[in-house]
Amino acid sequence: MTRSVDLVVVGSGAGGLSAAVTAAAKGLSVTVLEKAEVLGGTTAWSGGWIWAPRNPVVRRTGITEPAEAPRRYLQALLGNRFEPERVDAFLAAAPEMVGFFESLTALEFEAGTAIPDTYGQLPGAGTGGRSVIAKPFDGRKLGEAIELLRLPTRETTFLGMTIQAGPTCAPS
Ligand SMILES: Cc1cc2nc3c(=O)[nH]c(=O)nc-3n(C[C@H](O)[C@H](O)[C@H](O)COP(=O)(O)OP(=O)(O)OC[C@H]3O[C@@H](n4cnc5c(N)ncnc54)[C@H](O)[C@@H]3O)c2cc1C
């Protein structure tokens, strides 16, 4: 049987599914190909924190900053691998991406108001308010499709539940 679609996405991690959802929202027909028996890839095992400075979820908590600050941080971090055009594109698209997913999908975010940047000694490093994480989601809403989700690892769970840093959990 031959099937025709506008876009084929290979892989069902954050990269693949973000592309698939975005394309579908723009009206394209999409097929996602996944080689594993479950969905989610490495993303399903990750901490789930998304570094997206100046995003709307964080701004609603009252934290605002000019793009110059995270840009300075990335410049210090990346050194001679700093590519201004790509960094500026990322800094413009990251808040847009968060806004897109919270307005067009069932995904809701919590703001990491006290999650500092990893390299706090660098110029432009933030002390919180540049990250978001998905809010807890009632898996029962997925029905049988919940069986398709990759389970978390034994090392990161307690009694089957993922051990997770909350939005205000700053490392000591
Ligand atoms: C323990 C842990 C914690 C982490 N915490 C964070 C965090 O808090 N924040 C953060 O930003 N990053 C974190 N990371 C890193 C982050 O998880 C990865 O960078 C991210 O998930 C990569 O996403 P991806 O979509 O590129 O790949 P993946 O999520 O790995 O998805 C790739 C998918 O493609 C499939 N695939 C591969 N080849 C084929 C093929 N030929 N045909 C079909 N399917 C194929 C794979 O099976 C997989 O499902 C963490 C990583 C780990 C391991």
The mean pLDDT is: 93
List cofactors, ions and other ligands.
Answer: flavin-adenine dinucleotide
Identify the quaternary structure here: single chain
Helicity, as a percent range? 25-40%
Secondary-structure element order, as H and E?
EHEEHHHEEEE
Quickly give the structural class. alpha+beta
Detail the poorly predicted runs: none
Largest sheet: 3 strands, antiparallel
The domain tally reads 2
End-to-end span in angstroms?
57 Å
Query: Number of helical segments?
Result: 4
Evaluate the radius of gyration.
18 Å
**Global shape:** globular
Number of strands: 7
Which strand order does the major sheet show?
3-5-4
How large is the share of residues in beta strands? 5-15%
Please give the structural blueprint.
Layout: E1 7-10, H1 14-25, E2 30-33, E3 50-51, H2 56-59, H3 68-78, H4 84-104, E4 109-111, E5 131-134, E6 157-158, E7 161-162
Parallel strand pairs: 1-2
Antiparallel strand pairs: 3-5, 4-5, 6-7
Helix pairs in contact: 3-4
Bound molecules: flavin-adenine dinucleotide.
Residues 10-16, 33-36, 41-43, 45-49 line the site of flavin-adenine dinucleotide.
Can you walk me through this structure?
A hairpin with a 2-residue loop joins strand 6 and strand 7 (161-162). With 172 residues, the chain is α+β, with helices and mostly antiparallel strands. It is globular, with a radius of gyration of 18 Å. It contains four helices and seven strands. Helix 3 crosses helix 4. It has helices at 14-25, 56-59, 68-78, 84-104; strands at 7-10, 30-33, 50-51, 109-111, 131-134, 157-158, 161-162. Flavin-adenine dinucleotide binds next to helix 1.
